[in-house]
Amino acid sequence: MNIKLKLKIPLFRLFVALQMLIGIAYVNAQKQDNTIETEKNMEIAFIMFEDYETLDVFGPAEIFGRLTDQYTLKFYSLEGGVITNRHRVPIMTEKLDTMRNNPEIILVPGGMGTRKEINNSRLLHKIKELAQESEYVLSVCTGSALLAKTGLLDGKEATSNKRAFSWVSSQGIKVDWDKKARWKIDGKYYTSSGVSAGMDMAFGFLADRHGIDFARKIAREIEYNWIEDKDNDDFVAE
Question: What are phi and psi of 128, to 5 degrees?
C-alpha cells in the first residue's frame, strides 16, 4: 500500500467521526429547542359559571388564543358541560375535578352571575385552591369579587368594575381597592376594571412577560386601540 493510500484511510475515518459528532450535536440542539418550546407554553384555565359576561371571557381569549406557541386555553366549570349567559352565548367546559395538572394561569371573569356565585362555597374553595397553586391569577370586572371573597386579595392592591365597585369592594374589606385604575398588578395577581378593560389587562400581561413591542404587535394584528395606562381609567368609581 503506498503512502498516499495510507494517509487517505485515517483522514476518511476522521471525516466520518466529525460527521457523527456534528449529527449528535444537532440532535441534542433540537431536543433542547423542543424543551424550551414546551416550557414556553402555559395553560390558561378560564373558570366559568352561569351568566358570565361575554367579553370578559372572549376578549382575553381572542388575545391569548392567537398565541398558540405560548398559551393553551382551557375552559372549566364546577360540573362541566355547557355554560351559557344572558347573551345566550354557550361554551363547552370541562369539569374542574378533571383538571390533570395545576394550570399556570387562571382567569376569573365577571358578569351578573358573580352575584350568585359569591355564595357558592364550592366554587370559591376551588378558585382559592387553584389560585394558590398557579403562577398567575387574572380577573376581569366583578370576577375580582370572587377572588376577594376567598381572602386571597387581603392586603393587596386590586380594582374592579367601576359601576359595581361598592358591591365588589364590600366582598373584601381588607383589600386595597383602587377606584381609578384600569387594571392593577400585585405580585401574581392581575385585576381589571369593567368588561373591555380585561383586554387591556391581557395586553399588559403580555407586555410584562414578552415585552411592550410584542404586546403592541398583537394589538395591531387585531386592530385594537390598547389603553396602555393601567393606572388611569376613563371610568372612575365614586
Answer: -65, -45
Do 43 and 74 touch, CB atoms closer than 8 A? Answer: yes
Q: How far apart are CA 205 and CA 89, in angstroms?
A: 26
Contact call for residues 193 and 38 (beta carbons, < 8 A): no
Distances, alpha carbon 155 to alpha carbons 96, 131, 134, 164, in Å: 28, 16, 19, 21
**Following DSSP, what letter does each residue of 174-217 receive, concatenated?**
TSEE-SS-SEEEETTEEEE-STTHHHHHHHHHHHHHH-HHHHHH
Query: Cα separation of 138 and 9, whole Å?
Result: 65
187-232 pLDDT, tens digit per residue, is 999 999 999 999 999 999 999 999 999 999 999 999 999 999 999 9
How far from chain centre, in Å, is Cα 201? 10
